[in-house]
Amino acid sequence: MAARTSPTERQKRLGAELRKMRTSAGMSAEFAAGLLAIDRGRLSHIETGVRAIDADRVRTLACNCGCTDKEYVDALIDMAQPRQRGWWERYRGSLPAGLLDIAELEAGATRMRSAHSVHIPGMLQTSDHALAVFRVVVPPLPEHEIALRLAHRMERQQVLEGASPPEYVGIVHEAALRMQFGGRNVARAQLQHLLALSERDHISLLVIPFAAGAFPGAGQTVNYAEGPVAGLDTVQIDSTHGPEFLYADAQLAKYRAHLDWMERIALPPEASRDFIHDIARQI
């Protein structure tokens, strides 16, 4: 099987999990390669996501590494299966790969939590608000890329539609609610959109008011996607050079603690809706 030129985050994550399983068991790369009847170079490519691995080899490695967590192994086998092209693949080559990885991450999440201090979560933005955000990117984006990014963001939101959408918890700071991207009319429409979404059973919108004071991770956008099993959760954070994906155990624990802290100091859902209503009336 030919090597991939640019593995997706899902493929890299599978490789990272297999390597973690191997090293946790104290198994050398040479021994694992022999066990799987492949050469050392191919194993290295599998562990970096550059090459695929079949389900039987995943089972063999898990068995010999003493991994008895059936749900975890089954989830790895599912990750190893060839996938049908997701809708985001239409944008490959036209948008940065990281944006496509975000969409794939969201599509596979069983539950999502996000925290935003200055921006409204992308999953909850109106098209006019999103357009205003894309127009203040440095360096400026060409019009055709703005149109592509806008279409991509609107399609991402479809994961919250349908018969069985994942639970979504959005933690939004008061600063983000008061930022008037696109002007007063766009800002007011955005707040009304948030209120409408917050009425849905699977969406919880929690507001952190200025009065709540300091909290960890205050300046950072955090998206926490829960996987099919706890060990396959992923944190995605934004940076000036694109999205970053984190999944080391210590990193996951840190961001879970951050989000738990934010939820504790945020207003409850009903009070958050009243708070947003008040800001909308002031604009």
From TrEMBL:
Pfam families: DUF5753 (PF19054), HTH_31 (PF13560). PROSITE patterns: HTH_CROC1 (PS50943). Residues 18-73 form the HTH cro/C1-type domain. Transmembrane segments: none annotated. Signal peptide: none annotated. CDD domains: HTH_XRE. This is Helix-turn-helix domain-containing protein. It comes from Streptomyces flavidovirens. The lineage of its organism: Bacteria, Bacillati, Actinomycetota, Actinomycetes, Kitasatosporales.
